[in-house]
Design a protein that fits this description.
The chain is an alpha+beta fold. The chain folds into two domains: 30 residues, no CATH class; 76 residues, no CATH class. It is built from five helices and five strands, in the order αβββααββαα. Helix 3 runs antiparallel to helix 4 and helix 4 runs antiparallel to helix 5.
Length: 114
């Protein structure tokens, strides 16, 4: 049974948004999330000062660095779970503001287990 789950081909639906995938078997649609490493790269690109220099808060930087090597919220970074890394990042990223910050922080919060 587990082998069937591991080899399910995912096919993007033509009429769906890029954030929605179809599993090709039962007709159900699943929302996908971006990899934490991809989100971390976007944070680095968007958390800049007015002169275009990186402005990542020193306390958030180690968690952002850890997120660069994570894919899923269930992954581990050393002894810490990715969910803890994301929580620590969010706790230390309160100085990051703006439209990108609000959007990305909401995306990270939505990935966390309830």
């Amino acid at each position: 049974m587990l082998d069937n789950l591991l080899h399910v081909p995912y096919i993007y639906m033509q009429d769906a948004s890029p954030d929605v995938m179809h599993d090709g078997r039962d007709g159900k649609v699943k929302e996908t999330t971006r990899a934490l490493s991809e989100i971390a790269s976007e944070i680095r690109r968007t958390w800049m000062d007015k002169q275009g220099h990186s402005n990542v808060h020193y306390a958030a930087r180690p968690y952002l660095d850890a997120m660069r090597s994570l894919t899923l919220i269930g992954d581990n970074y050393g002894a810490d779970g990715a969910d803890d890394i994301v929580l620590y990042f969010l706790s230390n990223a309160t100085s990051w503001r703006g439209d990108d910050a609000r959007r990305i922080k909401a995306e990270l919060k939505a990935m966390l287990p309830r």
